[in-house]
Amino acid sequence: MAQLDVDGVIVRFGGNVAVDNVSLHAAEGRITGLIGPNGAGKTTLFNVITGLLQPNSGKVAIDGKDITKLPPYKRARRGIARTFQRLELFSVLTVRENIAVAAETRRGWAHDRKRSTATIVEEIIGRIGLGDCADERVDSLPTGQARLVELGRSLASQPRVLLLDEPASGQTEAETERFATLLRELCDEGITVVLVEHDVQLVMAVCDSICVLDFGSIIASGTPDEIRTNEAVLAAYLGTKKGER
Three-class SS of residue 45? Predict the structure, then answer.
């Protein structure tokens, strides 16, 4: 699959530095967590990685190849897919139709005729566990299920690097447990996952490594155990003061 490298990215909005010299390495077939308070710069960094926003400086690379200047559609063809903090679905279409649009789009630019769109869609629906509501409009679904539709649509592009922006928001406890299992399965297949998520318990359970953003800067990175006991993280993200537990 692919590894993702972000090197020295800076993003300024006027006089405000939203992302301040951020570097991040997401290894192939691993889940890298990206956590931090609201406004820390997580979604802005995702926008840089996917090409929706050009950084003031720094670069983004897949497998060592610089993609910083590529437009979003070319990055998608290199294997980058994402979900959004605010759901970006075709609300009047069904679950099946939403995923079919993405699958057919991918078949078009990849000239992939080995499997039919219908076959791909049914496989994904089964994988995300939405077979019982596949023919329901997505605007009738609970938020947790709608987020699974967005994940399914991302999977239809057959990504090498998958960026997930708060994908567990609105999920029930049971849905989150199934989602965690699915993430591990995707990584076992070689997909590189970067996970932005406020559910710290989920992040600690599934991530191989975690980076913590605060005020646009990486203040800590390491394994879940290392992050769990990091003083700077406890102070900035978990709301404790140095020395408290």
Answer: helix
By residue count, the chain amounts to: 245
Question: Taking the alpha carbons of 110, 116, 118, 121 in that order, is the dihedral positive or negative?
Answer: negative
**Is the four-CA dihedral 175, 176, 182, 185 of positive or negative sign?**
negative
Q: Are strands 161-165 and 80-82 parallel, antiparallel or unpaired?
A: parallel
Same domain, 151 and 167: no
| Dihedral of alpha carbons 238, 240, 242, 243, sign | negative
pTM over 0.85: yes
Clarify whether residues 25 and 130 are in a common domain. Answer: no
Beta-bridge partner residues of 169: none
- pLDDT tens string 191-214: 999 999 989 899 999 999 999 999
Structure tokens at 76: 């998608």
